[in-house]
Amino acid sequence: MNEAPLRLGTRGSKLAMAQAGHVAEALTARTGRPVELVEVVTAGDRSNAPVHRLGVGVFVSALRDALVAGTIDFAVHSYKDLPTATAAGLHIAAVPPRQDPRDALVARDGKTLAELAPGAVVGTGALRRIAQLHALGMPLSVTPIRGNIDTRLARVLGPEADLDAVVLARAGLARIDRADVVTETLDPMLMLPAPAQGALAVECRVDDTDLVELLAMLDHAPSRAAVTAERALLATLEAGCSAPVAAYAVVAEGEPTGDEGDAVEEIYLRGAVISPDGTRDIRLSRTGTPADAAEIGKALATELLDLGADSILGPQGHDGPGTQQFGSTE
User: Fold this and answer.
1) What confidence score (pLDDT) does residue 326 get?
2) Per the structure, how many domains does the chain have?
3) Which residue from 110, 120, 105 is spatially nearest to 168, judged by alpha carbons?
4) What spatial distance separates the first Cα and last Cα of the chain, rounded to whole Å?
5) Which of 53, 104, 146, 303 is a plausible cystine mate for 170, CB 3.0–4.6 Å?
């Protein structure tokens, strides 16, 4: 492998550039290899349509095309933007340590969700969040919004603010050093995150074996196991369910086992399917070992489907499986 700068493809938004910059710095620190950022414009960046109407992979396909064409060496994605189907010839070489995957409220006057007045207008870009806000049964008006982080924050904190609050991914705010505006980090019991929220996927060509090995130095096993479980659940549900899907896995030390009393890592996965209007939901959990992450996700999805997850559809039907939970982390 030569010592020319590695070309890292990224979207041009503030958040995407920040994410790519963090990965570039980490790779250079670990390997000494210089990295240059290459901006790639995606279909999602060119459209103002709601994210769930744009379809799966809208923020991803142009980056993958650039990888296949060889104009970039590797790419960084918000993992939740990736379709669950594997891309031929490409490989997720690393999942760096995951940021806090929870959702965050940014409200006027420092208010929490419970402190919002009846009729308060809350904006968010994900059907999953809209459905769960409705499911809380609070007297709120929830409206879909688009735009980058600064655009969304301006609708609450700017001089021409027209919303009382917005819900965003806490990870995105943290990555651009705006976590200070969060007025409440939402407990997953109230707002279960999107599968793989807060995680990054570092992708390269599968036949670039030297780079695959190099990028593997950035991989964080617990983060990979967690998102593997969450995305396995999502992939299984996509075959039979088009309602908003949420999933959150945590990897931690379990109870000591065996004669030696050694603690064994355990993965705890929660999953939910919610009708778009919030009137129906099914929530389940499952545990196991990180090595079985994919099987745990599939098994939990099967349980959700057995309990009727595929029948949970509200009046705000959308464009079909797999379209509601993908969107920019912004």
Assistant:
1) 35
2) 3
3) 105
4) 35
5) 104
Contacts of 236 (CB under 8 A, 6+ apart): 297, 298, 301, 302, 305
* CA 39 and chain centroid, separation: 21
Res. 3 pLDDT band, cuts 50 70 90 = confident
CATH number for the domain that contains residue 239:
3.30.160.40
What does the pLDDT look like over 8-51, one tens digit per residue? 999 899 999 999 999 999 999 999 999 999 999 865 444 444 44
Point out the residues that are catalytic.
Answer: 81
Residues 6+ apart with CB under 8 A from 71: 7, 9, 38
Higher per-residue confidence, 245 vs 51? 245
- Is the same domain home to 208 and 87? yes
CB neighbour list of residue 91: distance below 8 Å, 6 or more residues apart: 203, 204, 205, 206, 212
Compute the distance between CA of residue 94 and CA of residue 91 in angstroms, rounded to an integer. 9
